[in-house]
Every structure is written in C-alpha cells, then in structure tokens.
Amino acid sequence: MDKLKLSRIKLLIASAALLLVLAVVFAGTSHVSMAKLAPETSEKLRHDGGSDYVTQCARCHGGDGRGQTAKGRQTRAGDLTKSRVSDAKGIRMITNGSGEMPAFKNSMNADQIRGVMSYIRGFRR
Ligand code: HEC
Known about the structure:
This protein has about 120 residues and is an all-alpha fold. It is about 65% helix and about 0% strand.
C-alpha cells in the first residue's frame, strides 16, 4: 500500500470519527431543545398525579378512591368518589394532614400535591 492510499484511509477514518462525534452531540442537543420546545409535555407529566396517588394515597384511599382498603377502613379514609371538598381545602389536608391522614408536605412538592388533587377529582361522579 503506498503512502498516498494510507493517508487517504487515515483521513476517511478521521472524518468518520468526527461525524460520529457530531451525531452524538447533535442527538444530545436536539434532545435538550425538544424538552425546551415542548414544556407542556414535561409540565403535564409533573402534574399528572396518578403515580403519586398510587405510591402515596392508594394504601388508604384505594386504587378506585373508595377507601375500601384495610388501612382505609381502619382510619375511616372515606370515599373520594363522594368527596365534595374544595381544591383549596383538599390541598390543605394533603399538605398538612388531617386526623388520621398524614401530612405530605415532606414527601411531595406543591406541584405534586396539586397534581394528586386534580387526579383524585377524577374519581368524583
Ligand atoms: C393513612 C391513610 C391515608 C393516606 C395514606 C391518605 N389519606 Fe387521605 N384521608 C385519610 C383519612 C382518615 C381522611 C379523613 C380525614 C378527616 O376527616 O379529617 C382522609 C381524607 C382525605 C381527603 C378529604 C376528603 C373529604 O371529602 O373530606 C382528601 C382529599 C384526601 N384524603 C386525599 C388524600 C391524598 C391525595 C392522599 C395521598 C397524597 C391521601 N389522602 C393519603 C387517610 C389517608
């Protein structure tokens, strides 16, 4: 193999490597700009309280909100499908606790508490 061919091959390898680096960088930045372009998507995820409800509330209030779990009966968690509490009062209860219901201000931020409140509103009939 002559010297010219060898340096051409080296050049080819170098540009392939450069392209690869550029592709990785571009993929990285396009991901970031996607998140910037669609704030409502991440907003929605943060406000969707469904997963917080399952991890924090369902042991008492039940997956369906009726409070028919062992812990729900024991603490008299009541039936969220029949609850008519205002958002403001519900959020206060979730934040600071009420009676047998624990406070959640140390385990969820304000966004998560709002999210879970709007989620449980969906139980109402
Ligand atoms: C340890 C059991 C328990 C857990 C966990 C629990 N709750 Fe409660 N919840 C209760 C009890 C008991 C009451 C009744 C409190 C009262 O009457 O003062 C209640 C009341 C409520 C009410 C008021 C209903 C009404 O109409 O008066 C809301 C809203 C509520 N809970 C939401 C939640 C949410 C959201 C979560 C999760 C973040 C949660 N609870 C977690 C036991 C629990």
